[in-house]
């Protein structure tokens, strides 16, 4: 069984030629938009290829090979907007797509915020960030790797009696964005993953957990055997959970779960929520939301960053900047449309944020446990109990009870509750144990006090 993450010989890389083809299509479409009378236009062209293999209990369950493409056209007639899309690259289909976008614009009302981002903001330094690392992976080898991952986990301990399976994924994406300002931006990215989920115990005492690894390059991935063993250890650790008395306790969000807290912040400071007045952080720019040592910086230029980019989805040049500094919210997360609706300037975040780094003020995970002393470690969250308008937070959770700075026993079937404003304010520490599997780079986060309801 071939399980090493090495010897595949890469096929000839035709990505630049494929990008050239997409760019030529974009140019033709923009010319058609101009000929149709559009005052502004933008075109996005994407092409994706992927392989995904899933196994369970030693048998192959899925082998999927995908090849997708899409063309999106948006036209503006003054401040009236129309959009249409197609996956058909035949000339007659492309021409019909432009015609459809123009026809839709004819039925829309003027929108004062509509239009391309300002021409002066277009990116000019169109660097790449080491994000293109194709993996010459065929289905047979992907199956070998997935089976090796699951087998390593199942063989780890006799109490691992079942499996939710292991999977291998490899994908590559090419995209071209062009608009009538003359901007043309090209991106190429790869993303690979290995994951495994195992079940420990029997009957009503069964517990499930897993582990996964993601990276832009094959060499960034953990080995299949290590992933399987880690999945087994996590499932075994959850056996024999006990109850927790309802009360107010410190809560430590593991680095995986801490990302969700930053995600709630992003949702609340995004332009769409703000101009709709559907956020608990309306009119909060410039106010203190976090302790004065807390900061979050956006870093779009990280080599091999999971969300590095020289331009956003509108062609606006990205830039390094603080989202939170000294606990103060410095800005919102805006594209040009939401910025205009708010009377502000775009923050080059059309399409989302680019590599957020949450600064640590504490040590590694073990140090965070010792610092908490006694409380709840959350390693899983369930449900959608977050009200973005009020900030009220109530979610099902599972994890571990901590006594004397060390894990005591597993807990599940609990609920943790609070309000996000208070939770942000009550953050006591951010660990150095950053989880590299996301563009939101944060260590574990300790909140001084939350309501914990036992099962």
TrEMBL record:
Q: Where is the Metalloprotease TldD/E central domain?
A: 133-239
NCBIfam families per UniProt: PRK11040.1
Per the UniProt record, the source organism is Luteimonas soli
Annotated Metalloprotease TldD/E N-terminal domain ranges read: 41-105
Gene field: pmbA
**This protein's superkingdom?**
Bacteria
InterPro entries on file = Metalloprtase-TldD/E_C (IPR045569), Metalloprtase-TldD/E_cen_dom (IPR045570), Metalloprtase-TldD/E_N (IPR002510), PmbA (IPR047657), TldD/PmbA_N (IPR035068), TldD/PmbA_sf (IPR036059)
Which UniProt keywords are given for this protein, alphabetically ordered? Answer: Hydrolase, Metalloprotease, Protease
Question: Which family does the record assign?
Answer: Belongs to the peptidase U62 family.
**Taxonomic path:** Bacteria, Pseudomonadati, Pseudomonadota, Gammaproteobacteria, Lysobacterales
Q: Extract the GO molecular function terms from the UniProt entry.
A: metallopeptidase activity
Domain Metalloprotease TldD/E C-terminal as annotated: residue spans: 246-454
Spell out the Gene3D superfamilies in the cross-references: PmbA/TldD superfamily
Pfam family, any one: PmbA_TldD_3rd
Task: Quote the protein name from its UniProt record.
Answer: Metalloprotease PmbA
Q: Does the keyword Cell membrane apply?
A: no
**Record-listed E.C. numbers:** 3.4.24.-
């Amino acid at each position: 069984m071939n399980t090493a993450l090495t010897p595949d010989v890469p096929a000839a890389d035709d990505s630049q030629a494929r990008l050239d083809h997409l760019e030529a299509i974009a140019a033709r479409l923009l010319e058609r938009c101009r000929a149709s009378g559009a005052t502004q236009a933008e075109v996005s062209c994407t092409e994706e290829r992927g392989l995904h293999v899933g196994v369970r209990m030693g048998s192959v369950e899925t082998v999927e090979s995908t090849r997708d493409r899409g063309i999106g056209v948006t036209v503006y007639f003054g401040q009236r907007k129309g959009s249409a899309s197609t996956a058909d690259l035949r000339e007659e289909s492309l021409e019909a797509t432009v015609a459809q976008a123009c026809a839709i614009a004819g039925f829309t009302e003027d929108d004062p915020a509509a239009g391309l981002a300002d021409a002066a903001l277009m990116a000019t330094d169109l660097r790449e960030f080491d994000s293109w690392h194709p993996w010459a992976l065929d289905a047979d080898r992907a199956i070998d790797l997935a089976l090796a991952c699951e087998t390593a986990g199942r063989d780890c301990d006799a109490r691992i009696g079942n499996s939710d399976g292991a999977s291998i994924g490899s994908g590559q994406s090419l995209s071209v964005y062009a608009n009538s300002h003359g901007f043309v931006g090209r991106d190429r990215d790869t993303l690979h993953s290995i994951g495994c989920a195992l079940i420990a115990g029997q009957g009503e005492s069964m517990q499930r957990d897993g582990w996964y690894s993601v990276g832009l390059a094959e060499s960034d991935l953990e080995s299949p055997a290590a992933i399987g063993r880690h999945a087994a250890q996590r499932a075994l650790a959850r056996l024999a959970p006990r109850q927790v008395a309802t009360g107010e306790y410190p809560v430590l969000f593991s680095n995986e779960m801490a990302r969700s807290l930053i995600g709630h912040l992003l949702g609340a400071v995004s332009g769409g929520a703000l101009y709709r007045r559907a956020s608990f952080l309306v009119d909060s720019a410039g106010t203190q939301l976090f302790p004065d040592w807390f900061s979050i910086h956006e870093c779009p230029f990280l080599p091999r960053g999971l969300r590095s980019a020289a331009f956003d989805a509108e062609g606006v040049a990205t830039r390094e900047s603080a989202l939170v500094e000294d606990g103060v919210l410095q800005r919102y997360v805006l594209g040009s449309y939401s910025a205009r609706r708010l009377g502000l300037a775009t923050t080059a975040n059309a399409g989302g944020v680019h590599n957020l780094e949450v600064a640590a003020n504490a040590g590694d995970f073990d140090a965070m446990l010792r610092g908490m002393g006694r409380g709840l470690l959350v390693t899983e969250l369930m449900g959608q109990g977050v009200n973005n308008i009020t900030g009220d937070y109530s979610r099902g959770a599972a994890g571990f009870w901590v006594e004397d700075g060390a894990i005591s026993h597993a807990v599940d079937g609990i609920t943790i509750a609070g309000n996000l404003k208070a939770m942000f304010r009550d953050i006591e520490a951010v660990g150095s144990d950053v989880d590299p599997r996301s563009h939101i780079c944060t260590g574990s986060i300790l909140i001084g006090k939350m309501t914990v309801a036992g099962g």
